Amino acid sequence: EVQLVQSGAEVKKPGESLKISCKGSGYSFTSYWIGWVRQMPGKGLEWMGIIYPGDSDTRYSPSFQGQVTISADKSISTAYLQWSSLKASDTAMYYCARYQTSGYYMDVWGKGTTVTVSS
Amino acid sequence: SSELTQDPAVSVALGQTVRITCQGDSLRSYYASWYQQKPGQAPVLVIYGKNNRPSGIPDRFSGSSSGNTASLTITGAQAEDEADYYCNSRDSSGNQVFGGGTKLTVL
User: Fold this and answer.
1) Residue A87 contacts by C-beta under 8 Å, 6 or more apart in sequence?
2) Confidence at residue B2, expressed as pLDDT on a 0 to 100 scale
3) Do A106 and B97 touch (CB under 8 A)?
4) Which residues in chain A have Cβ-Cβ distances shorter than 8 Å to B84?
5) B24-80: per-residue pLDDT in tens?
6) From the CA of A111, how many Å to the nearest CA of chain B?
7) CB A76: neighbour CB atoms within 10 A?
8) Which residues fall within 8 angstroms of residue A14, CB to CB, at 6 or more apart?
9) Average pLDDT over residues A21-49
10) In this complex, which of A45, A100, A110 lies closest to B98 when CB atoms are compared?
11) Which of A54, B4, B38, B63 is found 20 to 30 A from B87 (Cα to Cα)?
């Protein structure tokens, strides 16, 4: 079964750093792009960026460029989303999803990681 | 960057047909994909490409496109179809963009 398993909920203070993860299984992790999607409380889905674990080629949405870092460790089939200095406005649910370049859609989604940033 | 516009809310009587639309310039070049999201759950892909359903998605879900508008049609809506629906498309700069979402109520 193709799965993306995300790390658990996080509660952080403003200014702290954070790295959340997304581990793929059941398929060739290095052959598919992985995308990250933000959903702020009560709001819609927002595309953040994408990484190709095979060579770590990374593309960011203009809205998120410079705000987060997307990375991957292909040896453990895991993609990451990280912040160097969190803000309260980073409070959201974050989803990873497998991205199909054959049709530009996301066919498998993780269950999401809740990030709460509060003083 | 491109934008995709959806009606915020749509309602349908149980068993009737409903169409949810998505408008944007990028849809003239790329197909939309559609995602269903129920409260407290991750999104689920329901339609991709010209009109393709992933395994496990009922055939009452279908997709179509004309000009700058993509549509998701549910023929014979069921109570379990009540959810938020999001369209998504690639844009001209190579990014993906989501519509604002449509809340579907089944009456």
Assistant:
1) A14, A117
2) 64
3) no
4) 44
5) 999 999 999 999 999 999 999 999 999 999 999 999 999 999 999 999 999 999 999
6) 5
7) 10
8) A85, A86, A87, A88, A117, A118, A119
9) 97
10) A45
11) A54
